[in-house]
Design brief:
This protein is an all-alpha fold. It contains 10 helices and 2 strands. The radius of gyration is 19 Å and the shape is globular.
Amino acid sequence: MTPVFLLGILGLALLDSLNPATILTVGMILVLRERQRFATAISATLGAFGIVFGSGVAIYSAAQWSLDQISGLLHWFNTLVFVGAGLWLIGHGIARLRHAQRRRIHLPDWVSPSTGWFFGGFFTAADLPNAVPYLVAIERLVDVNAGPSAIWVILGYSVIYCLPCLILLALFGLNQVKMAKFLERMHDRFGHGQRNRSPIIAGLFMVAGLTVATLPFVLDL
């Protein structure tokens, strides 16, 4: 694994860290939970970290074992990841061509510091099929046959994935009043109401999806 390769993994991790599922889960706890909100949000972040790290190790190990058993499977694995990522982007582009009604977000009463890890892990796990950069990063690790070193890369990836949540927690700890007001405004703005159609964003998603889906055939990955 070269520095350029690791830099590419870093870029994928930073892109994946913007995934709204985990960020909104932690932000929702900080906004809607009145008691022990900080401890509960930390617990949710740890749950998200555990899911990302554990899933990454499991997927990498399974893919590496499969490649060792079946000759020529790497080409099909590469193609599947990139075509799947492209279709995911195209699907999101199509979705932005129509209006959508956001559901109001509610925080279950049972969410607490002792159960927050499950709450954060659940929403992160539910969104893993949409984590395109995550799957591409694992595919690249399999492609270079990273071996045991891949575990450390996945560990670092998992930490970077949680970086926005860690920053959010740090800012909240420094100034709870100001951050609470900011998060409440974000909740009122994005937590419910109608999402308008956006042809420009839809077009960007679809062009990106088409590009990604055709990469295995153009570059013979």
